[in-house]
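Today's session is about reading a structure prediction critically. Students often jump straight to the picture, but the first step is always the sequence itself: look for stretches that repeat, for charged clusters, for runs of hydrophobic residues. Only then move on to the predicted structure, which in these notes is written as discrete structure tokens rather than atom positions. Here is the chain we will use throughout the hour.
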Amino acid sequence: MGRRGRGLAWAAFVIGVLSAAVSVYWGLGGTWLLDTVGGSLARLGRARNGVVIASVWGAAALKLIAAVLPLAAVRGHGGQAVWVLAWLASGILTLYGLVLSVVGWLVQAGVVHASANSDHLALAWHAYLWDPWFLVWGLLSAAALVRARDGR
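Below is the predicted structure for this chain, in token form.
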């Protein structure tokens, strides 16, 4: 297989690994930026709630898998199953990032009103960083897969 899509796949990989690294940091007990994810999650994370910590580690593992899939697909590893999983992960990342980013931007613009007791700091961080991060990651993954497919 040629080199088409590899640069995009590497970019998606880096973004995915950075996302997983944040989860690993929180899973290990780090608290920097924890307040930006939301009230109860941040509170339970600081309290080292077992279910939340297990979920954070699960998220880190899924993020690492999603980071590797497009790179493996464009390099020709794993055959059709890897292509299908890479497309599935790309679609989930893109859809998740798109829907939550748009909703977040609408809240930030005042088009959609958040409740008075909403965590406005977390809403802003989700609108401008956390959710667009998934969108960009998904789009890079999809672009890598399209480009590599065109080179097949």
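Discussion point for the tutorial: Helices lie at 6-27, 39-46, 50-74, 79-108, 120-150.
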